[in-house]
Design brief:
The complex is a heterodimer of chains A (107) and B (121).
Chain A (H helix, E strand, L loop, with lengths): L3 E4 L2 E4 L5 E7 L7 E6 L6 E5 L3 E2 L7 E6 L2 E6 L9 E6 L6 E2 L3 E5 L1
Parallel strand pairs in A: 2-11
Antiparallel strand pairs in A: 1-3, 3-8, 4-5, 4-9, 5-6, 7-8, 9-10, 9-11
Chain B lengths: L2 E5 L3 E2 L5 E8 L8 E8 L6 E7 L4 E3 L7 E6 L4 E6 L8 E9 L6 E4 L3 E5 L2
Parallel strand pairs in B: 2-11
Antiparallel strand pairs in B: 1-3, 3-8, 4-5, 4-9, 5-6, 7-8, 9-10, 9-11
Classes of the chains: A mainly beta (107), B mainly beta (121).
Chain lengths: 107, 121
């Protein structure tokens, strides 16, 4: 199975901060990564797919990137509604796997 | 817009079989560009992909669950279903159904709201 290692597992930040979350794949998976946002008691919502394509309707402050086997999700200016848990997911090979999650909390 | 809704028992006894159904509305379940998946999440933990089914009935399962798992589809009812046997407490989780996009790079959207399944005697 491809392991998706997310870091950090949690972070505290203030409104307006720039936040970057990293997901490292255990092997090369091209650009086949999606990012999801999940709020308590809700289903995950896709933000980014194919590493850097913004899903329709998602604010442009969210962006995705790739450097080697490290995928990044960046929030350019954190808003109150962005406090949530974020997950990466690879779709390169079965079984599809998710990262362990990054909880973004208010500082 | 497409909506997914899970249904099934909230409480199942150990060693029994869990049956869940996902009903698709607001669009067609028959598609060459999408497939239908089950994903679960134990309380306070991360997401685990369970398996998927295509409209033609082809399936892929997570090897960790494959020996206990069956996913089926009924296009006439716009439903797909999960059966997971020999349940233990470790199967207690919120179970989500979701639509996936075919091909590498595919993503899950939309998701159902999730249904909590507790395995307990």
């Amino acid at each position: 199975d491809i392991q998706m290692t997310q870091s950090p597992s949690s972070l505290s930040a203030s409104v307006g901060d720039r936040v970057t979350i990293t997901c490292r794949a255990s092997q090369r998976i091209s650009t086949y990564v999606s990012w999801y946002q999940q709020k308590p008691g809700r289903a995950p919502k896709v933000l980014i797919y194919s590493a850097s394509t913004l899903q329709s309707g998602v604010p442009s402050r969210f962006s995705g990137g790739l450097a080697g086997t490290d995928f990044t999700l960046t929030i350019s200016s954190l808003q109150p509604e962005d406090f949530a848990t974020y997950y990466c997911q690879q779709s390169y090979i079965i079984p599809l796997t998710f990262g362990g999650g990054t909880k973004v909390e208010i500082k | 817009q497409l909506q997914l809704q899970e249904s099934g028992p909230g409480l199942v006894k150990p060693s029994q079989t869990l049956s869940l159904t996902c009903t698709v509305s607001g669009g067609s379940i028959s598609s060459d560009t999408h497939y239908w998946s089950w994903i679960r999440q134990p309380a306070g933990k991360g997401l685990e992909w369970i398996g998927r089914i295509f409209t033609n009935g082809n399936t892929n399962y997570n090897p960790s669950l494959e020996s206990r798992l069956t996913i089926s589809i009924d296009t006439s009812k716009s439903q797909f279903s999960l059966r997971l046997s020999s349940l233990t407490a470790a199967d207690t989780a919120v179970y989500f159904c979701a639509r996936g996009t075919v091909g590498r790079g595919g993503w899950f959207d939309p998701w159902g709201q999730g249904t909590l399944v507790s395995v307990s005697s």
